[in-house]
Amino acid sequence: MSSPSELGIMFRLIRRNPVSMLGLIIVVTFVIVGLIAPYILTRPEEAWGIAYNVKDRFLPPSPQHPFGTDEYGRDMFNRVLLGTRFSLMIAVGVVGLALLIGIPVGLIAGYVGGKVGTALMRVTDMFLAFPPLLLAIALAATLGRGLTNTIVALAISWWPWYARLIFVQVNSIKSLPYVDAARVMGLGSLTIMFKHILPNALTPITVQAALDMGSAILEAAGLSFLGVGVPPPTPEWGLLVSMGWQSINRAWWISFFPGLAIVITVLGFNLLADAVREAMDPRLRKALIMKGV
Amino acid sequence: MSKEYIVKRIALLILVVFGVLIITFVITRLIPAHPELLWAGPHATMEQIEKARRELHLNDPIYVQLYYYLLNFVRGDWGVSWRTRSPVLHDVLSALPATLELVIVAFIIAIVIGIPLGVYAALRRDRLADHIIRVLTVLGASVPVFWLALIVQLVFGSWLHILPAAKRVDEILVLRTGFHPITGFYLLDALIEGNIPVFLDVLRHMILPATVLSLYPMSLCARMTRALMVEVLNEQYIRAAKAWGLPGKLVTFKYALKNAIAPVIASLGLSFGYTIIGAFMVELIFVWPGIGFYAAMSLLSFDYPAIVGVIVIVAIFYSVINMVVDIIHAIIDPRVRL
């Protein structure tokens, strides 16, 4: 089911649509900026929140300070730039950890089946009974503020989605003849599960997970805004918006630009997700391939 | 409509509520090293902490703790919020109507704008209008609701002074007209009492928060409607209807939309969860005295009994809404019952 040409076709489909291409460009830029952000800061101490510059408080956007300055005179452009790294860390952390829990659960539930499988999926369903973010709020409020706690809280409310997805995949793969053949040859269950079933179930879930990163960023920002996410002075975007709230009538830019960064990034991921979902639709793809895309 | 389906669905709901309670028990009582410290609050005295230990039965084995947790939940003894100093269940129930009213209005806005937008996009498929609507709906799902609320409040409330930027109703107007809420749904109460000034004022207060909150369900609604309409418009029977020379409007709205509407309603049910969490932030910003405001204030002041209470009630409420949506879906579309 998965092959390099699969992704190749997907990429060709994305390139055809300017809106999808915009999404791809935003996502790539976000990842690159997130990786190099700490090394391109012009005012690193202000960005990390360890230096104050009281005489430059509440300066509106200008060539020196494109995004203005906050109540401690810190340059908001540098803060938002460094925030990219935190959002990237949270996005990768949440999705990665959620996969780490969700994949084994879904795999075992799907392959072993029977009572164990049913029990595992019932537990999964109970987690899914919570509205999005609510479980993460409960966990974050219990664990306390912090980057790791935020990632853990969000990942624990996310893994059930991946467990479900893998479960469905494994269920359809395990009855294929090659799996029976492997069993007849006397391979162990673990070998069959991880070496022969998992690789074939992985493509859809990795694509899904990569595109879920936008939602992870959005939810982490929400946690920070509610005071149970990342603690100050971390320049996480949601926290920056919330920090600017009290002085919003005096200095709108403190909240505005970090929020804009969230909007653009999440929009990029969602546009790309939209394009990929369309590209994975077999009917549409068949039509396009016949047209010679 | 078979009774069997409804009974099955209610049995499932009870199971889900039980699951929700177990998970919240694990998160709030087993994971923290000292739940009594969280329960008693950050400025508690030794006696208060000791009292919390007794209230939570922490000296007993876990299954006894769970038993009392469930028992207290059923008896309505949800602890006392140390921020408001009143029982959590009372706080939560009295805040519920304000939120429901806001969310209902938000959903009405979402449906009234979202469905026509989706129909229009489907009719203009792959043309400019369709692309614009696509970008707008994706944008609607990408905007952090708390940021939008802040910006909208700043622009329309503080800069332009067009709309009230906080609270549910002008208190002076309430005193002058002698408005007495009965149900807690102010729009309804004002109508019952025939109090038109208050009705209009409540409506004006609602415009900003409800619009902000409606953005996500509206986007979802428009996208779902578009996708389903595109599919239905390609069906043979629609082509046949057109070939017969039936008017385009009749075909679109009567024959096509009718068959696309059930899944749209189902998807709106799912977005209810997202919307109610959005209400946590929107209500905090617009000082809207609902359950979201209560939740956000409890979180910001680490009022743990209140936090646990809100989480349980919102999760249960969400499960109930999902059940109702499933049943409505089954009534509209009999195939679901199979």
What does the secondary structure layout of this molecule look like, with pairings?
The complex is a heterodimer of chains A (293) and B (338).
Chain A: H1 4-16, H2 18-36, H3 44-48, H4 76-112, H5 114-128, H6 134-143, H7 147-173, H8 177-184, H9 189-225, H10 237-245, H11 253-280, H12 282-290
Helix pairs in contact in A: 1-11, 2-4, 2-11, 4-5, 4-7, 4-9, 4-11, 5-7, 6-7, 7-9, 9-10, 9-11, 10-11
Chain B: H1 3-30, H2 35-40, H3 46-55, H4 62-75, H5 88-123, H6 128-140, H7 145-159, H8 171-177, H9 186-192, H10 196-233, H11 236-243, H12 248-285, H13 291-300, H14 304-332
Helix pairs in contact in B: 1-14, 5-6, 5-10, 5-12, 6-10, 7-10, 7-12, 9-10, 10-12, 12-13, 12-14, 13-14
Can you walk through the features of this model?
The complex is a heterodimer of chains A (293) and B (338). Chain A has 293 residues and is mostly helical. Chain A has helices spanning 4-16, 18-36, 44-48, 76-112, 114-128, 134-143, 147-173, 177-184, 189-225, 237-245, 253-280, 282-290. In chain A, 74% of the residues lie in helices and 0% in strands. In chain A, α4 runs parallel beside α7, α7 packs antiparallel against α9 (189-225) and α9 runs antiparallel to α11 (253-280). Chain B is an all-alpha fold. Chain B has a single domain (88-336), classed as Orthogonal Bundle (MetI-like fold). Chain B has helices at residues 3-30, 35-40, 46-55, 62-75, 88-123, 128-140, 145-159, 171-177, 186-192, 196-233, 236-243, 248-285, 291-300, 304-332. Chain B is globular. Chain B starts with a helix and ends in a 6-residue tail after the last helix. The model of chain B has no long low-confidence stretch (mean pLDDT 86). Chains A and B meet through α5, α6, α9, α10 and α11 of A and α1, α6, α7, α12 and α13 of B.
